[in-house]
Amino acid sequence: MAGPSLPSPADRLNAVLEPVIPRLGELMRRRPDALSLAQGMVGWAPPPGVLDAVRQALELPGFSLHRYGSTWGEPALLEQVARKLSSGNGLDLEGAALVVTSGSNMAFAALAQVICDPGSEVILPLPYYFNHAMAVQLAGGVVVAVDGGPIPDPALLAAAITPRTRAIVTISPSNPSGVVLPRAVLTAINQLCASHGLLHISDEAYELFVYGSEPHFSPGSLAGAGPHTVSLYSLSKAYGLAGWRMGYAAFPQSLQPALAKVIDTFEICPTLLSQRAAAAALATDPAWAMERVAGLAPRRAQLLEAVQQWQARGWPVRLWAEPDGAFYGLLVVDGLRDGWGQPKNSDGLMERLVLENGVATLSGSAFGLELPGACVVRLSYGMLGDADLAEALQRLGRGLERFGLPDPMG
User: Does position 340 have pLDDT exceeding 60, yes or no?
Assistant: First the structure.
């Protein structure tokens, strides 16, 4: 005889976005030969000093790696982070505190728990990063998505502020668009937050990945920004430490007691062995990372050239914005014919590209970007070598042609 049924998942989870990466992973398991233009990773391993430091740590006598560490991160690593943020980013750390977390996603999720009551609002310019939206929703908050184009419009953000607003989030360089936000725009948003008593959460995971004339700018470097600015950083990207889950953040000291409750509940402390890897990465000559980032510029050029070639054929495709940072581009495909099959939307295009053409992308809908009459997919060129990237772009082109691009001659 069957016993009573288990409790169902909490109703609040119905409001949380479905995670796109596991969904794509399932599609790729059905097509194991697929090449990935999807997940945001680089193709290089960590600096040699990282592996050396880990080996040395494993050989230490005693139990130094096997016991709990500090909630905020090991003191020596926090000192390195402080030096990097002060000298490298010019952050004003007056009124700020520092934390090391299991990736910068952990820092964002923990802060969302701190600032959100049920119904609290967090403003995310479109397109947003899906894990940001999910973290706000998991905390009971409401995502207020503001569509201002590739460069967020401070006036539109200001118009979206209500008494329930707690923060405005920016990502520069942007995931998913690759746009590098101008200093003037980030300054205006930071000042807007200060004047309204809001947090400015600045995600700078891709700070080193800049290829154009617009340099990366940290709004936390503005005078007096420390008490209302959260600055998020990651070692996953430039230092190839995605699987080690290491990030760090500067945040207002006023939030520290509340954040301690969340971090102690979520992770107790960041992994001690991973912190040894992080310390070695931060001690690496910055030229090591910059050389590898510069090596992505030709792959960015491959993406731009492929889109130009498709346009020369009369295909109604375009990049949503000029991708001058990170390693992404948002490809917009206008007017796919009805005959290509259903659902004729970004999710459907993502699925068919994987299963029928062996190339993985991410649906633009995962980033909140829905364009009338168009499908949007995010392309990542960070992981593939030149030859594999060329093959992946060829597969993508064949897929678009196969799915029925409209005849430009009518």
Answer: no
Same domain, 261 and 324: no
Q: Per-residue pLDDT averaged across 172-190, rounded?
A: 98
From 283, 314, 349, the end of a domain falls on: 283
Which H/E stretch holds residue 167? strand 165-171
Is 390 found in the same domain as 337?
yes
Please, how many CA atoms are within 13 Å of residue 195, restricted to the half-sphere of its CB? 10
Q: Which CATH number goes with the domain that contains 375?
A: 3.90.1150.10
pLDDT in tens, 347-376: 999 999 999 999 999 999 999 999 988 999
Provide the pLDDT for residue 63: 66
- pTM to 2 decimals? 0.94
Residue 2 counted as domain residue: no
Q: Is the dihedral of CA 78, 79, 83, 84 positive or negative?
A: negative
Same structural domain for residues 276 and 307?
no
For residue 79, give both structure tokens: 């000192």
Contacts of 405 (CB under 8 A, 6+ apart): 315, 316, 317, 333, 335, 336, 337
Q: For residue 34, how far is the Cα from the chain centroid? A: 23
How do beta strands 121-125 and 142-146 pair? parallel
Residue 196: closest CA among 169, 224, 162, 155: 162
Q: What is the DSSP string of 332-395?
A: EEE---GGG-S--SHHHHHHHHHHHHSEE-EEGGGGT---TTEEEEEEE-SSS-HHHHHHHHHH
d(C-alpha 130, C-alpha 106), whole Å: 14
Domain that holds residue 376: 13-42+296-402
For the chain, what is the radius of gyration of the CA atoms? 22
Q: Give the angle 104-263-254 at the CA atoms, nearest 5°.
A: 90
Q: Among 259, 283, 307, which residue terminates a domain?
A: 283
In a domain, 72, yes or no: yes
Position 265 pLDDT exceeds 60: yes
Tell me phi and psi for residue 234, to 5 degrees: -135, 145
The answer on 202 and 111 residing in a single domain is: yes
Contact between 399 and 353 under an 8 Å Cβ cutoff? The reply is yes
Phi and psi at residue 145, in whole multiples of 5°? -90, 125
The rounded percent of the chain whose pLDDT value lies above 70 is 96
Which stretches within 211-336 are classed as H helix? Answer: 256-266, 272-283, 286-294, 297-312
In a shared domain, residues 36 and 56: no
